[in-house]
Structure formats: C-alpha cells, structure tokens
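DM from R.C. (forwarded with permission)

"hey, sorry to bug you on a friday — could you get me a structure for this? deadline for the figure draft is monday and I only need the backbone to look sensible"
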Amino acid sequence: MVTRAQQVGVIVGLAIVAVLTILRASDPQLLQLARDLTFDQYQRLVPRKFENVPVRVIDIDEASLREFGQWPWPRNRVAALVDRLSDMGASAIAFDVLFAEPDRLSPRNVVRDVSGIDPSLLSQLPDNDEIFAKSLTGKPVVLGFGLSNEGNYLPPVLAGFAFTGESPVGAPPAIKAATPLRPQLQANATGIGHISLNPGASSAVVRAVPLFLSDGKQLYPSLALEALRVAQGSSTYVLAGAPDTPNTMTRAKIGDFVVPVTASGELWLYVSPDTSERYISASKVLAPEGPSADVRSAIEGSIVFVGTSAAGLQDVRTTALGENVPGVSIHAQIVEQILSGHFLSRPDWANGMEILSIAVLGSLLVILTTFVTPAVALACGLLITLLALAASWAAFLYAGLLFDPLAPIVAGSITHFAATAFRFLVTDRERRDVRRAFGHYLSPSLLYRVEHTRDALRLGGDDRELTVMFVDVRNFTQISEAMTPAAVVNFLNTLLDALSHHVIANEGTLDKFIGDSIMAFWNAPVDVVDHAGKAVHAALGMRETLTRLNDSDAFGFGPERKVGIGIGIHTGLACVGNMGAQTRFNYSAVGDAVNIAARIESTCKDINFDILVSDTTARLLPASALLEAGALTLKGKSTRTTLFAVVGDAGMAKSAAFVELQALHRQLVDVLRTRSTSSRKLLGAAKRKAAILATGLPGFYERISRRSDHFLSDPAVRTDHVET
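My reply, with the result:
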C-alpha cells in the first residue's frame, strides 16, 4: 500500500527531475563548460596518435629569426621560401600569415619616403610584393585572411560548392568583413581560406574549429580545407545538408575525403600531443647551402603550413590536451585528422538523448528511492552512474562519439540525494512520532537503543542484575464494580500515567501494564548507576503523587474514599531482552528476581505498608530510611525473605524523629524475637513516634501489634523471625 508520505515523495522527486530536465534543455554555460572539460579529459586519456601523414609545419621559429632577422621578413624572402618549397615538391603551401599591408621593407616603398628622390627612379626599383606575387604564379599556394570588424571587404572564393539536401549556407558562423589581401597576391593565389580557429568562443581552448564561414549568401572555406583541396587538385566542395532542415550541415567532401561536421559546419578537433616531428624550421629550408636530404624528403608530396612558433609573435593556442601550441599547428592537425580518418563527432540527437536520459533515469531513481530500501536505491544509482560513464567512454573510444555522461550523473545524484533526504526527513518525523507514542511506555535509553543499535530488535536476552518493581492498585475489584467500563479506563489512565512518569524520570524501563498493575525494571537495556536507589526514589515519587491525586479528588471518588497502591521491589539476576515471535515481541525481563518482586508487592497487604523491598535491595540503600518488616515465606518460595519497609529518602533517614524511631524499632524486633512481654511497651512508643512522622507507619505498627499478641500467646510460632 502506498502511503501518503510516499506519494508526496514521488511528487517532489518528479518535480526536481522536471526542473533538472528543463535546466539541461536550456544548456547554460556552466553545463557546457563541464561537458567540454569531460570531453577534454577523454582526449587526455586517449589522445590521437601522431601519424607520419604528409603534413608539415614550416616554422618561423627562434632559430629562423636569429638567422634572418625579426618578423615580418621582406616578402622577397617569403617568395624565396615559396620557391624552395615548390622546388622540393610540396603539394600545397598554406600561409597562416596575413598579407594585408604593403611590404614596408620593399626598396620601392623605402625610397618613396625619402625626400628629393626623382619619382621616375621608383619604377626602376624592385617591389617585394610584385616579387612575391610572381613567385605565387602557378604554384599551389593558399593565402589566409582573418575576420575584421571594419570595412566591407570579402575575399574571392576560388572553389565551387555543391549541395545535397537543403542548403547549408546559413549554418556556419557569420563573417561580415575580412582583412584585405594585396590585390596582386590575391590574384595569383591558388586558394584563399580563413585562419580563424574559434571565432566568438568564450573559451581560450580550441575544441571545435569552423571549416566554413558564411555571409548568408556565400561560404568561405578555412585555410586547412583550402590546403587539402589544392593539394588534391580539386575544384569543388560537396556539402551535405540535413533533409528538410535548411541551414544545417552534416558532412563535407573535399576531393577524396569526407569529413563529419557539426550542424554549424565545425570539426571537433581530435588532437595529438605536440611533437617536434611536425615542425621544420624555416631556417633549414632557406639555408644558403640548400635544404638537407631529410628536409627534402619530409617536404616532398606534403601539405605544408607556414607559420610561427616564436614566443614574441604571440600566436599561441590551447588544445584540449592542455598544451599551448602555435596556431599554425592546429591548422596542420586539422588536415592530419582528415587524412588519418580519426574523427570525433557529437550527433545532432545527442542533446535530446541526454535530456531524455535525465528525465527517465531521474524518474526511475525517484521511484527506487521512495519504494525500496536506501541501500538498494544507492546501489542502483551507482550502477546507473557506472553504466553512463562506461557507455560514454566506450562510445568515445570505439566510435569517436561524444556523449556527455556528466549531466545525467549530476542530475541523477541531485535527484537521488533530494529523494533520499526527503525520505529521511519523513523517517525522522515518523521516528519522532514513534518516540512520542512509545515514550510513555519505554525509557529514553531503550528508545535510543532501538534507534541506534543494529541488533536491538532481535529475539534473545542477556543475564543482568536488575532492580524489578511491581505496582498494584489496592481493592481494584471493588473500585471497578461501582464504575462503568469507560470510567474504569479513565481511572486507570489517570493513575497509571501519573505513576509511570516516575519510572521514566528515574531512568527505568516500563515493561508492561497488567490491568491495574505496573511492571518496571532498572539497569537494562543500558547500565544504570545506583539502579536500586533510583527504583526506590521512583516508588517514593509514586507515593507522593498518589497522595496529591487523592487530596485533589482527581478520581472523582470524594474526599472519604482514597485509592491505595502496593509496591514491591527486589534486586537480583534476571534475563532481559526481546521475547515473543519474530514478527511481534516485547522487551521484557524474566527470572526468579521478577517473581520475588511480584510476591513482595502482594505481601504489602499483609504488612499493611505501601512500599516493601527485599533485603538484597536494602543492602544497596545504605542512606534510605528503612525499617525491617520481618522474614517471611513468600508464595512459591521455600526459604524466608527478609523485607524492609521504605519510610523515606536519605533526608528522612537523617531526621531526629526517624533516628529515634529506628532505634525503637530495632529494640522492638529484638524483644519480639525473645518473646518478651515488654514488646507491648515498645510498640506503644513506636506507634507514637510513627504518628509524628505521618508516613503510613501507624497502620504498619498496628498490624505488628495485632500479630504480636498472637506471636506471644502461641508457643508453636517460630522464634527465629519477626512475623508481622
């Protein structure tokens, strides 16, 4: 049966799942960052291996700057670099360099700024831009351009485009203007591509690069794609759009190579660790004696990218591996990745699947957490977490697919925590309800043990020294005969509630209510210091409470009719624990000590006193006000038990009146044992002293007086005890 608390728990849990699902669907930047970091970690665990594919970086490094001077170099030197690379058989030469301004080191430009020079002489001086443009003619050179916020220049596109499916022209990032190329360079280049690696990205880490840019009408390929196209001698890009979904791209075909891309035409970079094998210093290519055989072998048939790693030129990017690398190396890695065929992709349906997984798995966790044990729910939650991680990792490792395990795991953890917290809050509330309900019957120590001890609710018991108390209402049969059943219940509730309070207040355990009787014990389930003293203190509290109830006519019997009780207390060994059946049991005590306490309580009527303790208990009460009541044969026992009447606490025991009474009582006991008639005189004195104390002792001594007459007149009565 589903409880109301469980229904509320399911509703609250599903509401949390709904919020988390909506949050994931909105995909805030924090979740995007966490997802990117997860994918970065995957690459760090298994990076793409560097393969000796025909791609090299001609590096304008520190050695090159020392050899040929600071950058930018005169463009006639750049032209020499192009000639050398072309002569060595480079299949494509791509410049990760902007050629937007005239060469300021060109002799013609230098002389033009000198005053007094004949303008006719300028045409006779060499122009480095013309030299560089001439060197481009007929060579597979790709020039780069960057994004600009000024002007309206857009470079020419030197390749054609063919589409399958809907047009994807609106899919790539937008370009409004570009850095201009020198006209003669633009005219002689074989390819032109953009060098932007992560335009508009908020992160410095380059994870996905746009292969195309778009002005809404025309697509502009990247430097890496143009280099690959030119190297193959291809003239056209074939782009696949999503069926029935315009402005969405799925893949791009460049010559013989097909590249999977995101919907916006980006390529997920699967990077390899940076290595010196990828780089060739420009100084080695431009060496006066000519490049070495190793350099020639590396360049021949390769796609080469010209760029710089020199620290002062600040073209540094961060990869998913956490490495800071030259920007030109990322262009090279794009082509490396395409040639090796090792791609990463994040399917368009990945977001939907992850959102659905949060909703489904979250709902499942809510149901499990609500209706099964917390251990089972935790195990299922951990299993789901492991499966999500394993599935995501396997998809990356074997298929290059990027699925986010973190969002479902975090959402599932939050859901599980919230549902578990709600369950425990409800459980804690129910525990408080149980404590309030059973606090009337069990001592706080027992409740604590039940709540915090693993095996507290198991069958079995332990032998312990207990102080056992039985309380019984005097003449209950006569009282109940004159009352309706409802009135009897009300009477018992009023009386037993008031009396049982003293058991709990004195660290006792209320064992059970037996009709008009109470059974309680001390020193279990936990040790209780001075358990005999606390039991007697509870009995004295019951005496005072009953007097107050009678004086206030709490039972409605009138001032003439008083309710009386008898209390028997004994200390001894008993077996205490859970007793009954596996499905229903009581925490109780059994043994001879329990029987003796019950017999002592029934003897209170014969002794005519309300609180009696055994000699075993009396020895543990050196400071209490006790009077010997005689050695009696209890029902069912073969030996006699010496009983003591509890007159009061330690304060009364020290009072002058009780000290005198105690001395008289000892004399009386001694005289009765010798059958002396002087006992009558001592009885009279004891009665007078008892009347002063007003503790119920007059009736006690009246009983002794009546019994002593029989004691003195009957020679058959034993003389080794005082029988009252």
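R.C.: lifesaver. Residues 710-724 have pLDDT under 50 and may be disordered.
me: no worries. The two ends are 62 Å apart (CA to CA).
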